[in-house]
């Protein structure tokens, strides 16, 4: 192979699935894929061994992994992941939204969890190959996408609290629709006053599996209160709003004709969301003022009651933008505006989707076009 061969650049052996699903099976699965329920025909597997580094990998049929029960990931949770999307374009091509930004964050998460990082260029190269291999799994419906899930897990089979000497990088592709089953509708959120998501010096800025496992009990509390998501407060003062579930938060402030987008500042305990960063840029372009600062729960409550805060929404790769209609807590609750999706959040969502689906100019260079 030449050095320009895509598989050589990605360091992969291509092993096509001998039994891919039929066109009829694929179309039936993609008609209503939900989120994270349907996988494509292939995956990527790359091994790491201490002293040798990241080795040659395989693009092969999607299948279960043989795992030793003593693998370190099962005991000490050395595991990180990412998520980004590939979108169908009007000319029939496929483009990914900001995969290089996900590659950089993947490196940051790896370093925080004492995992050897996969080089950023290889992250993008192997993603391109998997998407090309399973190109027919990219949905054509607006708002739908091929969701890419890269992850690294520790696989050394020895019990001891230390970094593993062996890892696997995995990459999955999942055709997906709306993250929430009800589509783009306002959600009710529950303020967790008992649990915290992350503390200073912890792993809040890393996309590691343990952060999500620790959130599940609070999520159960939210569901028992008739809410779809948890609102996390800071670990020190227990009064500043940080995130909602695994997503970033935005608030819309209105003073006369002036609209200001406010989002909690990055303190090391929040995940630096790529959708968050993109919306800050889009907000400026649309003529909104933007602020990154601390927002207390009391400010949220009083600003919403006064009408100065007109909207609140969550954002992330999976959900894009999800409006918040109701806020509930043990000390009482309140409604955002009239409880429906607000015009600013919907305008931002449409502007972002227009870029992702190729119907608006990509002036930022966010879309990575596949060959």
Explain this structure:
The protein is of the alpha+beta class and 371 residues long. The protein is 26% helix and 28% strand. The strands form two sheets. Strands 1, 2, 3, 4, 5, 6, 7, 8, 9 and 19 form a ten-stranded mixed beta sheet that branches.
Outline of the structure:
The chain has 371 residues and is an alpha+beta fold.
Unreliable stretches (pLDDT < 50, length at least 5) are none
Q: Roughly what percent helix?
A: 25-40%
Largest sheet: 10 strands, mixed
What is the averaged pLDDT score? Answer: 95
Describe the structure using short key phrases.
10 helices, alpha+beta, 371 residues, 28% strand, ten-stranded mixed sheet, nine-stranded mixed sheet
Chart the SSEs and their pairings.
Blueprint: H1 6-10, E1 12-14, H2 23-31, E2 42-49, E3 53-54, E4 57-61, H3 72-76, E5 79-81, E6 84-88, E7 94-97, H4 99-112, H5 120-133, E8 145-154, E9 166-176, E10 187-191, H6 209-213, H7 216-224, E11 229-233, E12 241-244, E13 248-255, E14 258-263, H8 274-285, E15 289-292, H9 297-306, E16 309-316, E17 320-328, E18 334-335, H10 343-356, E19 367-369
Parallel strand pairs: 1-4, 10-11, 10-17, 14-15
Antiparallel strand pairs: 2-3, 2-4, 2-9, 5-8, 6-7, 6-8, 7-19, 8-9, 11-12, 13-14, 13-16, 16-17, 17-18
Helix pairs in contact: 4-5
């Amino acid at each position: 192979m030449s050095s320009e061969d895509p598989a050589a650049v990605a360091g992969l052996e291509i092993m096509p699935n001998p039994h891919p699903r039929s066109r009829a099976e694929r179309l039936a699965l993609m008609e209503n894929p939900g989120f994270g329920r349907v996988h494509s025909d292939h995956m990527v597997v790359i091994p790491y061994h201490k002293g040798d580094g990241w080795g040659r990998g395989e693009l092969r049929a999607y299948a279960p992994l043989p795992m030793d029960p003593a693998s370190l990931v099962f005991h000490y949770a050395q595991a990180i992941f990412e998520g980004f999307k590939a979108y169908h374009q009007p000319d029939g091509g496929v483009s990914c939204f900001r995969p290089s930004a996900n590659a950089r964050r993947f490196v940051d998460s790896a370093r925080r969890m004492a995992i050897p990082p996969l080089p950023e260029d290889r992250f993008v190269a192997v993603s391109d190959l998997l998407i090309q291999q399973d190109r027919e799994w990219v949905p054509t419906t607006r708002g739908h996408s091929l969701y890419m899930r890269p992850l690294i897990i520790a696989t050394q089979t020895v019990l001891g609290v230390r970094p593993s000497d062996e890892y696997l990088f995995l990459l999955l592709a999942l055709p997906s629709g709306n993250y929430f089953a009800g589509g783009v509708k306002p959600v009710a959120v529950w303020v967790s006053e008992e649990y915290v998501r992350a503390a200073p010096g912890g792993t809040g800025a890393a996309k590691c599996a343990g952060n999500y496992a620790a959130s599940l009990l609070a999520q159960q509390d939210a569901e028992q209160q008739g809410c779809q998501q948890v609102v996390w407060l800071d670990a020190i003062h227990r009064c500043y709003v940080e995130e909602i579930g695994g997503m970033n938060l935005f608030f819309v402030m209105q003073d006369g004709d002036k609209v200001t987008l406010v989002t909690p500042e990055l303190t090391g305990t929040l995940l630096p969301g790529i959708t968050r960063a993109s919306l800050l840029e889009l907000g400026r372009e649309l003529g909104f003022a933007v602020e990154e600062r601390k927002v207390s729960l009391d400010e949220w409550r009083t600003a919403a009651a006064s009408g100065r805060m007109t909207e609140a929404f969550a954002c992330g790769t999976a959900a894009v933008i999800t409006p918040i209609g109701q806020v509930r807590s043990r000390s009482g609750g309140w409604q955002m505006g009239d409880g429906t999706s607000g015009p600013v959040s919907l305008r931002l969502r449409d502007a972002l989707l227009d870029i992702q689906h190729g119907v608006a100019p990509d002036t930022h260079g966010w879309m990575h076009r596949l060959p």
